[in-house]
Write a structure and sequence with these properties.
alpha/beta; Rossmann fold; three-stranded antiparallel β-sheet
């Protein structure tokens, strides 16, 4: 099994519902390093805004929400937990109402800067998953992976996690793809993996092979 250098960061980016979290979590476990989900931080900001009655299109109010609350991510090898003040809201961040607004929150440059700053404070080695990881956040990461899949396959995977119809989930993913189009491009030096036809174990195995190619 590959041993990451002590200062190494592995980034796993990808489209919405491309399996980034599940893949990153399993890759980190097999590499025996922590797993960091920046996407969960965006969801945490979104949940805080919704609970405060803030419009997700209002960047100034979103920043006020960040100032008004203690928002914290706790990285773990087996997953991440997020806290709104002292309350564990990890499960609430996976709700459909957060799904529907998180891309709008992530479009705000100052919010993205806040999220990126939280992730950069963490000490490597670790596997970082989420928006901008291989570009703005860790441009010099030792290994970069970008996951893609068709919108239909991504919807089929996500519908099992949501109490909604396939049609609604598929539509939401396509709408989110449109919102994310300007800020979800892979890093120029990232290795891309199309996961249609691959299950989770197969994807994790392939990602580990790609990481080995980049970490010498």
């Amino acid at each position: 099994m590959l041993n990451l250098p002590k200062n190494a960061v592995v980034t796993i980016d990808g489209l919405a519902a491309s399996g980034k979290s599940s893949v990153a979590k399993n890759v980190a476990r097999l590499l025996s390093v922590p797993y960091v989900s920046s996407g969960l931080l965006y969801r945490l900001v979104t949940l805080a805004a919704l609970e405060d009655g803030i419009k997700t299109t209002d960047e100034r109010s979103l920043l006020d929400t960040l100032d008004a609350h203690e928002l914290r991510l706790e990285p773990r090898n087996d997953g991440n937990r997020v806290y709104l003040d002292d309350r564990d809201v990890t499960d609430e961040c996976a709700s459909s109402r957060v799904d529907n607004e998180v891309s709008r929150v992530a479009q705000h440059g100052l919010v993205r800067s806040w999220v990126n700053a939280q992730v950069r404070r963490l000490a490597p080695p670790f596997v970082a998953e989420g928006r901008d990881m291989g570009t703005a956040v860790f441009p010099h990461a030792r290994a970069k992976i970008f996951l893609t899949a068709s919108s239909k396959v991504r919807a089929e995977r996500r519908v099992s996690e949501r109490n909604e119809t396939f049609e609604n989930v598929h539509l939401a993913i396509e709408e989110r793809d449109g919102l994310d189009a300007d800020n979800s491009e892979p890093a120029a030096d990232a290795l891309q993996l199309h996961t249609d036809g691959l299950n989770l174990d197969q994807t994790v195995k392939r990602v580990l092979e790609l990481i080995k190619q980049q970490v010498k």
